[in-house]
Amino acid sequence: MGLLTEKQVVAQLKAAKSWARIGDEIRRTFVYEDFVRAMGFVQSVALLAEKMNHHPDIDIRWNKVILALSTHSAGGLTEKDFALAKQINALP
Amino acid sequence: MGLLTEKQVVAQLKAAKSWARIGDEIRRTFVYEDFVRAMGFVQSVALLAEKMNHHPDIDIRWNKVILALSTHSAGGLTEKDFALAKQINALP
User: Fold this and answer.
1) How far is A59 from chain B (nearest CA, A)?
2) Cα(B24)–Cα(B71) distance, integer angstroms
């Protein structure tokens, strides 16, 4: 899995709605009504991540879930990161 | 829920095996074989937390889960934090 070029990253970011680039990763914060709903979302993310064998950093703060994606084995952003970001965005 | 005194915190920490005090919170890192096992643990923690209506900060890094407990409404450590820490320690 090769690193994306700067141009590719910029293009992918436009398609990955609400994800922000921070250094070598992309991040998005999801806010829910409460902890139960936030954990339901985390569970869905976990299933997608395991299926894709690509696991975001997940920070849970009661009703907030902060996800960070990066391909550590490649040392930065790859297509895998944006593919998972889009799948996560498509969750209900 | 009142803040614990310094003396009470020190006593509670001795009983809450493997938790470390960092500022106004207590933290413990749990390491599992892989993401699936780590998420199983997170799910157990979530059930205990919701039952007690006391929710740790949860950071998931593939096979590692970092928990941080503090009673934000009280501005520091209370009995609730140590009660939940002990329940989490008792998980299989």
Assistant:
1) 4
2) 9
B4-28 tens-digit pLDDT = 999 999 999 999 989 999 999 999 9
What is the residue extent of each domain of chain B? 6-11+19-89
**A52 and A87 Cβ atoms separated by less than 8 Å:** yes
Q: Is the CB of residue A13 less than 8 Å away from at least one CB of chain B?
A: no
> Which chain A positions have a beta carbon within 8 Å of B46's beta carbon?
35, 39
Q: What is the CATH number of domain B6-11+19-89?
A: 3.30.1360.20
Q: Could A59 and B57 be called an inter-chain contact, meaning their C-beta atoms sit closer than 8 Å? A: yes
Complex confidence, ipTM: 0.96
Within 8 A by CB and 6+ apart from A81, the residues are A25, A26, A54, A69, A70, A71
| Burial state string for A48-66 with b = 16 or more CB within 10 A and e = fewer than 16 | bbeeeebbbbbbbbbbebb
The pLDDT tens digits of the residues spanning B37-67 come to: 999 999 999 999 999 999 999 999 999 999 9
Q: Does A49 touch chain B (CB under 8 A)?
A: yes
